[in-house]
Amino acid sequence: MTLQTRSALLQRLEAELGYPVVAYVTGDRPGLQTQVSWDQVPLFRRHLSAMTQSAEVGLVLYTRGGDTNVPWTVVSYLREHCDRLTVLIPFYAHSSGTLLTLGADNIVMTRYATISPIDPTVANQFNPQDPMNPAARLAINVEDVLAYLELAREQLGSNDVAESGEAASRTHLPEASFVRLADSVHPLALGNVKRSVNQIRQLARKLLALHPPERNEAEMSALVSALTTEFYSHQHQISRREAKAMGLPITEPSEQLENLLLAYYDELVIDLELLLPFDAPRLLRTAFPPSVPAVVPAALGPPIIQTPGLPISPPAPGLPPPAAPAQLTGTLTVHLERGYIETSHTCDAYTTRGEISYQPMAPQVQFAGGQQIMLPGGQQAVRFDVLSELWERLA
Fold first, then answer.
1. Of 114, 141, 286, 332, which has the fewest Cβ atoms less than 10 A away?
2. pLDDT tens-digit profile of 383-392?
């Protein structure tokens, strides 16, 4: 049983470390990603209360990030149960996961572990519409806004300098650049970007100030700036050597400790299927393999073509009617685990339960060469219906 395997590994970690540990895992399976979020916060109470009292507590962390407001509360909970907090990173602790690590006295990283920049990506009702999906809003990365304004400053005195006078252009170009940006992006969305930058910097400072070493203002500013604005990409992965050079309290684990952390990660790969993209059609075909070939376009007969303004033309005389495509049947019930908050003897799992099934498709309309093409119905699509998404107590 996989829960038993993870529990045994956490017990071995505790024996190796000499203090209790709690694991916080949000899976990043492609197509089924899970993020750090507020619904997870109340779950920590049960797990932390069940741990034996200790001067030090370990947090085994695996996440690609999520809500940046959550780390401060989680770190506060953890530090109420110990005098010294150690974060142990087998592989990924990115974005808001990196924020969590900043609240630790000690950060243990395997040779494969990475953290990331903490520059936020913001989204609210004032963000621009997604041109591919007007019902959705585009997220704004703080680095994109800062890079645009930096580019505008760099162009001062170059091709953008007006012939009327270099001094005037230097005075008015930054303002003009910002006005142009505000014409494309709602001012309140830009205000949200600024507020998010200030918030993330404040959070980083508060978390770093919770523990030694004490940093003077110059050291604190340099570290926070490095994490928020100096990597130019939220996707940059910071290795333990790079993190140590930045001034973070990084520790390399012993060989035994690293092997245990990587063994726990390997178990996550199996239990959460981290390296296997969620592919509903593949799962359904595997469970209910078709006894006949899948629908082939030739079996649908010729399309019906309509020129705008004219009635639909029927198929040419003498052609056989379209053959009815083979109908595939079957409904697959799935139970997918997507994250864990657990100790060696307690466990909550984030699970999705759903049904994957074949669904008939209605006739479709396509446009090509100024003509409207009616494709006959009868084809099938795969549908995934989510029945529930919730945290379940497993132990």
1. 286
2. 999 999 999 9
> HEC states along 201-254?
HHHHHHHHCCCCCCCCHHHHHHHHHHHHCCCCCCCCCECHHHHHHHCCCEECCC
Helices and strands: H and E segment counts in the chain: 11, 15
The answer to whether the CB of 10 falls within 8 A of the CB of 344 is yes
Is domain 2-120+212-223+230-271 annotated with CATH 3.40.50.2300? no
CATH 3.90.226.10 in the chain: give the residue spans: 2-120+212-223+230-271
Q: What is the pLDDT of residue 329?
A: 79
Going by DSSP bridges, is the β-strand pair 304-306/364-368 parallel, antiparallel, or unpaired? unpaired
210 CB-contact burial (10 Å; exposed 0-12 / middle 13-18 / buried 19+): middle
Query: Tell me, what amino acid is at 367?
Result: F
One-letter amino acid for residue 107 of the chain:
I
Distance CA 34, CA 393 (A): 17
CA distances from 251 to 92, 111, 240, 329 (A): 16, 11, 8, 55
The whole-number average pLDDT for the span 199-214 is 93
Compute the C-alpha angle 1/272/242, nearest 5°. Answer: 120
pLDDT at 76 over 50: yes
* DSSP string over 348-370: EEEEEEEEEEEEE---EEEEETT
The whole-angstrom distance between residue 383's C-alpha and the CA centroid of its chain comes to 23
CA-to-CA distance for 62 and 35, rounded, in angstroms?
A: 11
β-strand pairing of 129-130 with 84-89: unpaired
